Q: What sequence folds into this?
Protein backbone atom coordinates (compact mmCIF):
# COMPACT_ATOMS: atom_id res chain seq x y z
CA UNK A 1 0.00 0.00 0.00
CA UNK A 2 2.86 2.39 0.74
CA UNK A 3 4.46 2.04 -2.70
CA UNK A 4 1.27 3.18 -4.42
CA UNK A 5 1.66 6.53 -2.67
CA UNK A 6 5.44 6.88 -2.80
CA UNK A 7 5.92 6.00 -6.47
CA UNK A 8 4.12 9.00 -8.04
CA UNK A 9 5.52 11.44 -5.46
CA UNK A 10 9.08 10.26 -6.03
CA UNK A 11 8.92 10.28 -9.83
CA UNK A 12 7.12 13.62 -10.17
CA UNK A 13 9.11 16.16 -12.23
CA UNK A 14 12.25 14.05 -12.58
CA UNK A 15 12.48 14.71 -16.30
CA UNK A 16 15.60 13.12 -17.79
CA UNK A 17 16.42 11.48 -14.44
CA UNK A 18 13.23 9.39 -14.49
CA UNK A 19 15.01 6.09 -15.23
CA UNK A 20 17.49 6.57 -12.38
CA UNK A 21 14.70 7.51 -9.97
CA UNK A 22 12.66 4.45 -10.90
CA UNK A 23 15.77 2.27 -10.51
CA UNK A 24 16.34 3.61 -6.99
CA UNK A 25 12.75 2.78 -6.08
CA UNK A 26 13.25 -0.78 -7.32
CA UNK A 27 16.38 -1.04 -5.16
CA UNK A 28 14.21 0.08 -2.26
CA UNK A 29 11.96 -2.89 -2.92
CA UNK A 30 15.02 -5.12 -2.71
CA UNK A 31 15.80 -3.53 0.64
CA UNK A 32 12.38 -4.67 1.76
CA UNK A 33 13.57 -8.20 1.07
CA UNK A 34 16.76 -7.81 3.14
CA UNK A 35 15.61 -5.99 6.28
CA UNK A 36 13.16 -8.73 7.35
CA UNK A 37 16.13 -11.11 7.48
CA UNK A 38 17.89 -8.80 9.95
CA UNK A 39 14.67 -8.45 11.91
CA UNK A 40 14.29 -12.23 12.08
CA UNK A 41 17.88 -12.67 13.21
CA UNK A 42 17.49 -10.18 16.06
CA UNK A 43 14.08 -11.60 16.98
CA UNK A 44 15.58 -15.08 17.28
CA UNK A 45 18.66 -14.01 19.24
CA UNK A 46 17.19 -11.27 21.45
CA UNK A 47 13.44 -10.59 21.56
CA UNK A 48 10.69 -9.42 19.27
CA UNK A 49 10.54 -6.06 21.03
CA UNK A 50 14.26 -5.39 20.61
CA UNK A 51 14.15 -6.52 16.98
CA UNK A 52 11.90 -3.58 16.11
CA UNK A 53 14.91 -1.28 16.55
CA UNK A 54 16.09 -2.59 13.16
CA UNK A 55 12.96 -1.29 11.47
CA UNK A 56 12.64 2.03 13.32
CA UNK A 57 15.03 4.02 11.06
CA UNK A 58 13.02 2.86 8.05
CA UNK A 59 9.77 4.08 9.59
CA UNK A 60 11.35 7.42 10.48
CA UNK A 61 12.53 7.87 6.91
CA UNK A 62 9.06 7.08 5.56
CA UNK A 63 7.54 9.69 7.87
CA UNK A 64 10.17 12.24 6.78
CA UNK A 65 9.52 11.48 3.11
CA UNK A 66 5.75 11.68 3.48
CA UNK A 67 5.80 15.13 5.07
CA UNK A 68 8.90 16.83 3.69
CA UNK A 69 11.20 14.69 1.56
CA UNK A 70 8.98 14.46 -1.51
CA UNK A 71 9.05 18.27 -1.81
CA UNK A 72 12.85 18.53 -1.90
CA UNK A 73 14.07 19.29 -5.42
CA UNK A 74 17.78 19.72 -4.66
CA UNK A 75 19.84 18.23 -1.84
CA UNK A 76 22.29 20.88 -0.70
CA UNK A 77 23.27 22.39 2.62
A:
Amino acid sequence: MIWAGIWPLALNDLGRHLKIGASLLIMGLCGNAILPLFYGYFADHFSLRQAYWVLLPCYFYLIFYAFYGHKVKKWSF
User: Anything to note?
Assistant: The two ends are 32 Å apart (CA to CA).
